[in-house]
Amino acid sequence: MTPRTLLASLAATLPLLCTPFALAQHQAFNINPDASTVAFTLASTHEITNGTFHVSKGLVNFDAASPNLSGLIDVSAATGNTGNASRDKKMLNDVLQTSQFADVTFVPQTYTGTLALNGDSTLQVTGIFTLHGTPHTLTVPMQLHIDGNKLTAKTTFKVPYVQWGLKDPSWFVLKVSKEVDVNLTLVGFLAP
């Protein structure tokens, strides 16, 4: 083979060899709403209230070679459920005002830490958390587990809902915490 023929063969083959590697870097985390959970805990002087919300949709785009993220995680505010109908009505109507603010969203923007393309990773994810129509910058610790094309992401964080402008549900002798603890588990699959 002449040097010219060898060079032409390499030039033709190199893009084909590099394409799978390049495509493997760009991933989309497609979140399965039915397998994902949003749990919350709110303390008060009389009890600890536990409840849930439903993830309505989610997609996070990332590149393992870059700290940039994009996408959206959307939670339906109207799905809040604590198992107590009168408390839920007050939460949904008076505090969250779900008729005006139907969604709580998180738009991931960046992460720090090392992202393993298989196995476990611990990251700090920063993005815009929109609650009650107002955006807030939020950084959350995120534990990821990737097994083939399956991904599970877990985080726990506090939301200072009263500081962020929502109504304080405290009244008379019932004093309610001004922060709610959120435990989020996102389950889904990876696609190039």
Q: What distinguishing features does this structure have?
A:
53% strand; alpha+beta; single chain; 9 strands; 192 residues; 2 helices; 9-stranded antiparallel beta sheet
Give a verbal description of the structure:
- The chain is an alpha+beta fold and 192 residues long.
- It has two helices and nine strands.
- Strands 1, 2, 3, 4, 5, 6, 7, 8 and 9 form a nine-stranded antiparallel sheet that branches.
- Strand 3 (48-63) and strand 4 form a beta hairpin.
- The radius of gyration is 22 Å and the shape is elongated.
- The model is unreliable at 3-24 (pLDDT under 50).
Give the N-terminus to C-terminus distance in angstroms: 37 Å
Silhouette: elongated
How many beta strands in the DSSP annotation? 9
Question: Structural class of the secondary structure composition?
Answer: alpha+beta
Output the helix-strand order. HEEEEHEEEEE
* Uncertain parts: 3-24
Mean pLDDT, to the nearest integer, reads: 89
Q: What is the radius of gyration computed over CA atoms, rounded to a whole number of angstroms?
A: 22 Å
Number of helices: 2
Biggest β-sheet, characterized? Answer: 9 strands, antiparallel
Helix content: 10-25%
How much strand content do the residues show?
Answer: over 45%
